[in-house]
UniProtKB/TrEMBL annotation:
Signal sequence bounds: none
Species of the source: Candidatus Nanosyncoccus nanoralicus
Superkingdom of this protein's organism: Bacteria
Ranges of residues in domain HD: 36-141
Protein name: HD domain-containing protein
Length: 165
């Protein structure tokens, strides 16, 4: 299912994935060692997976496009000089402003982008697609961070081991 969903993300999100600004996101780290670009693709893929698991009929095009654009803020949030204060709260609105300049967005896509940080954001999810992307984003972010912690722990254990493999 994951491979089929990844193919569907690339098909439905082609316009976004081919854009120069989306390609720029490959240079920005989102969580741990995962780029914002890869994180966005993971969130879109996970969103399709969750919709299938919960058997929720969704607008797949809006779901994928909104998921791909949910973190379209276009700066390195680790660089304190580039990022606004309160990034966690404000980046959905910045992502929305960037996305609407570059793409024609429908109401579902707008709400997905603006509400994906709920309950931290001031905008609440209004559509089932928005709720799904919000959940998918939390799942992917947690997975990315935990995966990095496991890798660092394994490396640390190997470095401190008296045994050489």
């Amino acid at each position: 299912m994951k491979t089929n969903n990844l193919i569907l993300v690339h098909k439905l999100g082609k316009e976004i994935l081919d854009s120069e600004n989306m390609k720029r996101e490959k240079r920005f780290i989102q969580h741990a060692n995962v780029s914002t670009y890869d994180h966005s693709i993971s969130v879109a893929t996970m969103s399709l997976t969750l919709a299938a698991i919960f058997r929720v009929k969704v607008d797949k095009v809006s779901l994928v496009r909104g998921a791909l654009l949910h973190d379209f803020f276009l700066y390195d949030w680790h660089d304190k000089t580039a990022m606004p204060k309160a990034h966690a709260y404000l980046h959905p609105l910045i992502a929305f402003d960037n996305a609407k300049k570059e793409f024609k967005l429908n109401a579902i896509e707008k709400n997905i982008i603006q509400a994906h940080m709920f309950p931290l954001s001031i905008v609440m999810p209004k559509y089932k697609e928005s709720w799904i992307v919000t959940m998918a984003d939390k799942i992917c972010a947690a997975s990315e961070v935990i995966s990095n912690i496991k890798i660092r722990l394994a490396v640390s254990l190997l470095k401190n081991s008296r045994f050489i493999l």
